[in-house]
Amino acid sequence: MTPKSILKNSTVSTNEPSATSKPYTQRHRDVALQHASIIEEQKRVEKEVLDAIMTLMDFPTSPTADPMRPSPSDALFFQGLMVNFQPSDYDSLIEERNIADRCGYALCPRPKKKAPSKARKHFIETDKGVEIVDRRTLEVWCSDDCARRALYVKVQLSEEPAWMRRGGVNDKIELLVENAEDHHKALPLRLKQEAAPKPAKSEEEEDVASAWAARDDALADLALERGEKPGRLSKANKDLLRTHIQERVQTAPSVPPEPPTQLSGQSHMAIEGHIPRADRPKDEDEEDDGTDWDKHLPG
Amino acid sequence: MDERSNVSPNMIKMWRVYRTVKEMCMDRGYEMLKEDTDISLDEFAARFAKEDGEPDRGRMHFSCQPTEAMLVKYTDSPTPKNPNPVPQIGTIWIEFNSDDAVGLKQLRDYMQHLVNGSFYSGIMVVQKPMTGMALRLLRGSASIEEGPKGGVEVFVEQDLLVNITKHELVPKHVLLSKEEKAQLLQRYRLKETQLPRIQVTDPVAKYLGLRRGQVVKIIRKSETAGRYASYRWAI
Ligand SMILES: [Zn+2]
C-alpha cells in the first residue's frame, strides 16, 4: 500500500478505503482477540495455580502419611496439579508451606526443620568443613530425603508458562516413590521396559516418546550441570533410591580414615552427591555437595 | 530528644506507623478522636512496649465505625428497584502483623477472622511485603467468597512511616459520593470514562481506600489561579 498523503485528496474514491482497510481491521481484530484469549488463559492458569497451592498447603491428606510411600490418591492429585506449574510456582508452593511451618515437599506431613537459633546465618558442619548458610536454607525441608524428592519434581516442570505451551501440557510429572507397585496401576508412572522402542508407532506414541526423550535430555543436562559424568549412575536415578540409608552407629572406637579408593563403586550410596561417612572413605574430589539443591530455593 | 533516648528505635518507628494508620482511618471518614491520632510517644510506649522495650504488635489492633457522613457517602441513591439502599461500608478491623514472613496462611486466617467477627473490611499492616501468592489472592479478594464484603487492604510498615497526604506538595483528595459523582457528570455532560484517571494502586488512592469506579476531587492551590479542582476516576 502506498503511504497515505496527509493532504486532502479529492480524487480518492469513497469505496477504496473500505476495500483496503477491511482486511486490516479484520486482522487487527484477530490479533486483539488472540491477545485477549491469551490473557484470559493466563488469568485462568494463575487462579488454578493459586488454588492448587492453597490445597497443597494442607497436604498430604493424612497426618501420618509417608513421603516415601504416598497414598496413590494423594500422589495422583499432586501430579495432576503440577502440570500447570512453572518452577517459580513450585518455589511459591515451598515458600507458602514453609510459612505454614511445613516441610517444603507437598507429600510430607512433617514440620520443616528448625534451625538451632533465630540467627540469620548459621555455621553447619559438612563434609567440606564448616560452612555458613542462611537460616532460611536450613528451614525448608524436614530432611535431605524430602529435599531430593521435592526437587525431583521441580526439575521436570516446564519454564514455559502453561498458557503459552503450544504442544499441549506435559502430563507426565514423575514422583520418587518406593511403593511404585501400589501406584503403577493408578498412576502414569513410567516403567523402564516401556521405554524400549516399538516398531510401527502411532503418531501419538511418537509424540509421547519424543516428549520422554526431551525430558531425558533435560535430566541429562541437569546431571551435567551438577557435575555428574555421563554414563555414571545419575543422582536423580530412581533405581538408587531403593537403597536404604544406613544410620551411623558407633560400634567400634574410631579409626583413622582409609586412603581414598575408587569412589565410583560407592556412587549407589550417594544421596544428593553425599556418600554417608559410615560407608565411605574420605575423599577430596567432592565437587558437588549436599547443598546443591539450595540453588532451587525461593529468593 | 530526651524522652526518645530511652525508647527503642523500633518503638519510635511503630509509633509513627500507628499514628499514620489512625489518621488514615479518620481521613477516610471513620469515627476517630483527634487525640487518638495525636498519641504521644510516651503514652504509645507505655501501652504497647514489651518487657524488652520492643513494640508488641499483637496488642495494637483496633476497629472503627464509619461516621454518619461516611455512611451517606457510601450509600447509593434510592431507585424504584432499590428504594432502601444499604451503605457499602461498615466496621473496619485493623491489625498489625508480627510475623517475619506473611503468606497465604496469614492472609487467609485474617480474612477468616474478619468474616467471623462480621467486619465489613480490614487493613493488615505487615513488616515486609507479602509473598507473591498472597498478593495474587489479595488481588482477586473482591471476588472471593471466603473474604469479607469490603475486601482486605495490606500496607507495609515502611509505607506508613510518613503520612504522605500531609506533604505540602500533595494536593487534597476528596472522595465524591455516588450522588455527587452523578451531578458532576451531568453538569459537564460527561461519561465517567472521559475523566482523567487515578489508579487504585496510587499511594494517595491506597491511603483513601479508593475503589474502582469512584471519583475523587483533587484540590490544588495555585499562585496564579488560587484554588482549583480537578476530578479523577479510579480504575
Ligand atoms: Zn519432609
Describe this structure in words.
The complex is a heterodimer of chains A (299) and B (235). With 299 residues, chain A is mainly alpha-helical. Chain A has helices spanning 16-56, 72-82, 87-99, 135-138, 144-154, 180-183, 203-225; strands spanning 121-126, 129-134. The longest helix of chain A has 41 residues, at 16-56. Chain A is globular. Chain B is α/β, with parallel strands linked by helices. Chain B folds into 2 domains: 9-160, Dna-directed Rna Polymerases I, Ii, And Iii 27 Kd Polypeptide, Chain: A, domain 1 (3-Layer(aba) Sandwich); 164-234, RPB5-like RNA polymerase subunit (Eukaryotic RPB6 RNA polymerase subunit). Chain B is built from 9 helices and 8 strands. In chain B, the strands form 2 sheets. A 4-stranded mixed beta sheet of chain B has the order 1-2-3-4, with helices on one face. In chain B, strands 5-7-8-6 form a 4-stranded mixed beta sheet. In chain B, helix 6 links the parallel strand 2 and strand 3 (121-126). The model of chain B has no long low-confidence stretch (mean pLDDT 90). The chains are: A mainly alpha (299), B alpha/beta (235). The interface between A and B is medium-sized, with 11 and 14 residues. Bound molecules: zinc ion. Residues 67, 103, 105, 108, 110, 141-143, 146 of chain A line the site of zinc ion (ZN).
Give me the secondary-structure topology.
The complex is a heterodimer of chains A (299) and B (235).
Chain A: H1 16-56, H2 72-82, H3 87-99, E1 121-126, E2 129-134, H4 135-138, H5 144-154, H6 180-183, H7 203-225
Antiparallel strand pairs in A: 1-2
Chain B: H1 2-5, H2 9-28, H3 34-37, H4 41-48, E1 62-64, H5 68-73, E2 92-96, H6 104-116, E3 121-126, H7 132-139, E4 152-156, E5 172-175, H8 178-187, E6 197-198, H9 203-208, E7 215-222, E8 226-234
Parallel strand pairs in B: 2-3, 3-4, 6-8
Antiparallel strand pairs in B: 1-2, 5-7, 7-8
